[in-house]
Amino acid sequence: MRHRYLSVILPILAILLFASVSQAMDPPVKMWEKWYFTTYDTAKFYDIEITTDGNLFITGGIAYYWMGGQKMHPAILMDTDGNILWMLEMSWYAVLGWDGAVLPDGSFVITGRSVETPSDTYALFIMKISSDGDIEWTKIYDYPDTKEEGYGITCLPDGGFAVCGRVHGTGSSAGQAWLLRTDAQGDTLWTRTWGTGYSSYAKSVVFNNNELCVFTQVMDDTLSSHLGPHLLFFDINGNYIRGVAFGYLFYHEPASLCIASDGGYTFVSHLMSSIWHTDQYGETLWWHNIPTGPMDIHEGFCVRRTMDSGYIFSGWTGYWMEPGPNNPNAQVLQVDTDNTQDAWLVRYSEEGEYLWGIAEERGVSYHYYSVVQLPEGGYVAGGTWGGSGYLARFAPETGIEVEEPSPVITLDMFPNPFSSVLSVSFNLPESGEASVLVYDLSGRLVGTVADEVFPSGENTVQWTVPEGVSSGCYLIRYNAGSESAVETVVLLK
Q1: d(CA 229, CA 149)
Q2: For the residues of 402-437, what is the DSSP string, one character each?
Q3: Which of 135-149, 286-300, 439-453: highest mean pLDDT?
Q4: CB half-sphere exposure, 43, CA atoms < 13 A
Q5: pLDDT above 50 for 333
Q6: Alpha carbon 178 to chain centroid, angstroms
Q7: pLDDT band at 295; cut points 50, 70, 90
Q8: Rounded Cα–Cα distance for residues 89 and 75 (Å)
Q9: Less packed terminus of the chain by CB within 10 Å, N or C?
């Protein structure tokens, strides 16, 4: 039992350190790298999620050929040392897992594309997988002679799911953007489509502020007067609320979206990559191009929020540039001399300050399709290396710690760690509205402790942990007017 508590508490010390200081960060050191399915196989690791017990749940496209046969693996579970714990094996002709999510009970759900027989076209699938790697159920969404595909999936408070992707694709056409809501068994509650059927698709979806926010590419969006990437907002019943266009990104295409610590959104574009931060309504607060050469073709794939409320961003490129107007702190990172595609990671602060970037010229094209920060600090990035699956683990950043001034507001939790009920105390200079929200480390809203009018002075509210919320690290965010504070707590059930 002692070791069990230490395994949870020690990572929290690192988290609290991140929360209490700002750092002049050095790029992290690579601890190890590993290759998978390197002989007669093809593999790409598209998404990495941290499980409730600290392992790596990976979705992707893995074709494993052996003795004249073919095996397909859309999902793998690994430990943080890169050892395979189990692989999901499918008998379909082809299958690719684009995105996955970890459920509170430790099970998983994934979406992507499937081709059950050689004569079939792409179909969008949703699959529920147990913590042991057994398929609990599968749902197939397919229209004859067209291509359907799921790109993003998120869990909803009622236990169901929202999935986004494309429908009615033909040939090189992406088709129309597609948003689906299902119940906990994957049965459809409603669907929404938009776009011309030429180059429209929905790439990422999150549930935040009681809304579904979709990062989408649209060529004829009847919901807005502009073309290109959009954030579109729907209520839980699929009713359209509003849409925001980003004209600068017209040719850049959407890549990845996450919930920011201030309740807004941060997303990254795919082509000629940029990182963009908005408020909860989609209005731009800041944005930056990554520090790459202006003539280079580079791509971004994944953005994740870090434990200090900053961001880690992954992709590939060939050339890096000197500091410029949008990146005054950038450094020369890489100059390509062999025309390969070189994977990169870029780190930004919560305010959009460039912290570090790394890229290595390896003599072979390789990509980081996904990256996650580990609860104990450091990162795991995954993707592909010349057709093989590839993982790399990085140590936590190091740097000079700089004391931050004491915040105007205070936020105290007791006890911490806690097992069932957490008391949250905060000061309010004058009476007014305040909210206390609970997020997991991936930025998903877990619970609302309070959202109401409070008197001035110190106030205390309590959070009783709902059933299905597992042990682990959580972020408590307090908002009052223009002031906010975030603290980390540990749940030990």
Answers
A1: 18
A2: EEPPPPSS-EEEESSSBSSEEEEEEEESSSEEEEEE
A3: 135-149
A4: 29
A5: no
A6: 19
A7: very low
A8: 8
A9: N
Cβ distance 71 to 87 under 8 Å?
no
Give CA 428 to chain center in angstroms. 33
CA 189 to chain centroid: 25
Secondary structure (DSSP) of 355-383: EEEEE---SS-EEEEEEEE-TTSSEEEEE
Between these two residues, 196 and 191, which has the higher pLDDT value? 191
When pLDDT is averaged across residues 380-401 and rounded to a whole number, the result is: 86
Order the strands of the 41-50 sheet from edge to edge.
Answer: 41-50, 56-66, 69-78, 84-90
In sign, the C-alpha dihedral spanning 453, 455, 456, 461 is negative
| Chain position carrying tokens 């990976």 | 58
Q: Do domains 24-402 and 406-491 have the same CATH topology?
A: no
As a whole number of angstroms, the distance between CA 306 and CA 347 comes to 9
Provide the pLDDT for residue 407. 45
Please state the length of the chain. Answer: 493
Q: Which of 413, 386, 387 is nearest to 476 (CA)?
A: 413
Cβ atoms of residues 485 and 468 within 8 Å: no
Name which of 114, 154, 129 is nearest 58 in CA terms: 129
Give pLDDT, residue 226.
Answer: 61
Closest CA to 470 of 449, 490, 442: 490
Burial code of 426-464, b = ≥16 C-beta within 10 A, e = fewer?
bbbeeeeebbbbbbbbbbbbbbebbeeebeeeebebebe
Return the pLDDT at 409: 64
Question: For residue 236, which of 183, 280, 198 has the smallest C-alpha distance?
Answer: 183
pLDDT (average), residues 311-337: 57
The answer to whether the peptide bond before residue 229 is cis (omega within 30 degrees of 0) is no
What are the structural domain ranges in the chain? 24-402, 406-491
Q: Is the pLDDT of residue 71 over 80?
A: no
Distance of alpha carbon 272 from alpha carbon 295, whole angstroms: 9
Spatial neighbors of 344 by CB under 8 A, at least 6 apart, are: 290, 314, 315, 316, 317, 333, 334, 357, 358, 359, 368
409 vs 406: CA distance, rounded Å: 9
CA 184 to chain centre: 21
Contacts 24+ apart (CB under 8 A), 2-9: 5/417, 5/492, 7/54, 8/417, 8/471, 8/472, 8/473, 8/490, 8/492, 9/417, 9/490
Look at 335 and 251; give whichever has higher pLDDT: 251
> What is the topology classification, in CATH, of domain 406-491?
Immunoglobulin-like (2.60.40)
Q: Which residue has the tokens 């069990």?
A: 4
The radius of gyration of the chain's CA atoms, rounded to the nearest angstrom, is 22
Mean predicted confidence (pLDDT) in 144-150: 92
pLDDT tens digit sequence for 127-137: 999 999 999 99
Annotation: CATH topology of 24-402: Neuraminidase (2.120.10)
